[in-house]
Amino acid sequence: KIIFAAEQLLHRQHPHLSGFQDPALQQIGTFDVQGSKEFVQILFERENHWLTVSTVGCDVATVNVYDCMNSHLSTPLKKIVADLIHTSNKFITINYVKMQD
With the CA atoms of 14, 18, 23 and 28 taken in that order, what torsion angle do they form, in degrees rounded to the nearest 10? Predict the structure, then answer.
């Protein structure tokens, strides 16, 4: 609930962006498709680890991953990202943005 509350605050500050969906939807696989809209979404990776994916400022079928552990997306998270983008492109580009420790 805390992550979703933070997303709602961010959405109020940036109403022109999509995403900011309740992370609980990740568990049941019911995120709304974002398509070509610029979006920000916080995702649960494992244990107590969260990361953010965003298409803000990205080319079509490209997503940036912001992860303080600088790890790569698991296969299930790649599927979620692909479902969020829902592009007709054959491939999706995932940019791992280097984060400071």
Answer: 170
- How many other CB atoms are there within 10 angstroms of residue 15's CB atom? 8
**Edge-to-edge strand ranges of the sheet holding 93-97:** 18-19, 39-46, 49-54, 62-66, 93-97
pTM of the model: 0.87
Cα–Cα distance measured from residue 85 to residue 87, given in angstroms and rounded to the nearest whole number: 6
pLDDT digits 0-9 by tens, 52-68: 999 999 999 999 999 98
What Å distances lie between residue 35 and 2, 32, 52, 72, CA to CA?
26, 9, 17, 22
